[in-house]
What does this fold into?
Amino acid sequence: MSNASQARLRLLSGIAALALPFAANAETPAAPAAEPTTENADGQGLTEVVVTATRRETNLQKTPIAISVIDPVIIKDRHVQSLLDLGDGAIPSLRVATFEARQSALTIGIRGIVPFDQNQTARDTGVGVYIDGVYLGRSQGLNAALFDVARIEVLRGPQGTLFGRNTEGGALSVVTAAPTGKFDGTLTAGLGNFGAYNGQFHVNLPEFANISLKFDGVSQHQDATVSNPLPGSYGWNYYNRVGGRATALWKPAPGLSVTVAYDQAKDENTPFYSQLVNYNPNKYNVATLAQINANGGKLPADAIAPLSPLVVVAGGRRMTSADIGVPQQLSVDQTHGVSSTIKWEVAPSLELRSITAWRGVTTDQWDNSGGGHRTVFLPNAKFSRYSLSWMDQHQFSQEFQAVGSVPQLDYTAGLYYYTEKAEETAATPTSNQWNADGTAYTILSPIVTGTVASGNQGWAPGSRFLQRGSRANAHSYAAFAQATFTPDAFDAFHLTLGGRYTKDKREGTLFLVSGKTTNFPFTFDNSRFDPMVTAAVDASDTIHLYAKYATGYRAGGANSRSQTFASFGPEVVKSYEVGSKMDLLDRHVRLNLAGYIMDRTGTQIDFDNVDTNTASPTFGNHTEETRNAPGKSKIRGLEADVTINPVDGLTLTGSYAYTYTDVPATANPFKNNALTKVFVVFTPRNAASASLDYELPVAIGEAKARLHIDGNYSDAMYSFQNEPVKTDSSFIVNGRLALADLPLNDAGTKVTLSLWVRNLFDETHIYRRSNANSSPTLNNNGSLNYGGVLGDYANFNPPRTIGLEGAIKF
It folds into this structure.
């Protein structure tokens, strides 16, 4: 190493010591990088990162928005196969979790805007998810396999001007790789533990007649990590994903391009296992079997049910095999879509664009994740709630954009239209029945038998008792504009003004409630204007400062789990943010900081109630009511991203997010409208991530050895909006060792061999926990009902997974 390099290393080490406290406190691990960190070919430090957050290609460091970027290198190093793999905290401000225990629907949040239950027909998300500029309207199907991703942009903070409604927390924009017009491609195959295998291909064909074609295919499989003792039924945390995508790029004339893409994917999966982590934590009286039998098979008024001797209370241990076998079929999500993007450069100062898309998703949900761990034992009682849902959604969107630049002014303007139709029916039969003393159980018939109250409600297709059904149609219209003015006399200053007018209409019907035909209508009609103002200053060529005011909006809707399709109003966020983006020491250190204050009004709070009393005729029924919280919900935060390239081949990254949230007490309809403290879910106070990447040339052509390791920390957090119990804190380490770009022949074919591991130390933590079954509920007369008291149940993170992978690039 030269003297200059040694001096630079010592200086960088000193700066790192000063910078890292911004990224993590003394008790928190340092954090990962949010942007690609490859060194420039000329050795001049970190590369420029291009993003499209402003609907035009811009340098990340000069874009006055808090953005994290996940590039293909990060996706490979972390072995990210679907969005759920980002749930370990790769981007601390981004939170990804399952809805309930299901892999078939994801909850995605940014900066404390994390909806509890958006898995419905008549309500929307708080963070918009986009693929190549097309908004995805439903949570179902979001965990499908990722195709050939060029980058994932995580836009933090309200994006109401350019991205529209339902982006009050931010937007997650997936950008796929475009056709190259040259014959090239990649073939990848891998094997792992738990019977895992994966394969993918990405092939570009040579351009012909000004048309370039690209084909992508993906297959991902993993057997269950928690086994099911019932023969013929699947275990838990199983998935099998397949998908394909075809893209055509036509350039009929200079300045004109037409891209048409079609994709289809199928995701077969089972939920995570819901296990009992304690029994009777509040030390209530426990009835004996003799007392229950003497009381006609019912509980005494002041005691809880005993625990079946078959049920294992595992505490903080992740179970590898269930103690109770239950029917568990595969949930199946099927997504498909076609899109057309037209770009026409009318003049050097103006490009016109059109983005047209039709998309759809269908979901057959089969969730029997609890077994005997979420319902109490009584002699000969039925148990294990099998949560079934069938949802079908179709959407159409059309967006027109005008993007251009004239002296001193960059501008974007557009029109947007979105419409969707969604319908869902649901059933919650019970699948098992105890014997007289809880020492054995039987599996009920999947065919409906007896009366609704006393018989089996069935789950076989064509023979099931449907309990809930809703349908909803939505229409959204918008006009938007944004312009950045740079005065000629002071070209280091940039003022951006933007605004978006949105008109939302939604109507629907709840046509089934508790198995009875109903006709509860719902309508929502609202319009609003979302402004944005940003002032940015280039303090130097490598230091950029900004201050931003923006608003965001999540549409109102109706809760399909309620008894009457009860409606609720919209929620609105006002955000105030300051930030800096700095490239230091000849671009060998990148430090980005952001601080924000967000005030949200009309916060949508879900109050959840599941009848776990086996003596009740509504046993297993899931009721939910949504209320708008009064006053202001406060969200405050600090974020830091640091990337250091001290010497050639070595990159250190860190990212940290501090998030404070406070929601006013809200009337709880299940507790006589008593004001109840509520919480923001899946939002840790402190979250951080760090990574180390090292590349070393190998004396075989352009081959190199590559080492990656990352660590991801999260504080304990709430997972239910109205339950004061928290999850565990977590620290997950992932790694990858690769021998990359080994030449296979003189034609340029290269091979990469890698060993990857997720959750290297097999760390175990609870990511979702409920104590709803740990305390008695209130009867209508105000007395306590101990019938559903059991204990806390929880879902655990996946165990360690490890695998080998090979890729051929030609």
Remarks:
- The helical segments are 3-23, 72-77, 289-294.
- Residues 89 and 659 are 14 Å apart (CA to CA).
- The longest strand covers residues 516-538.
- The chain has three helices and 46 strands.
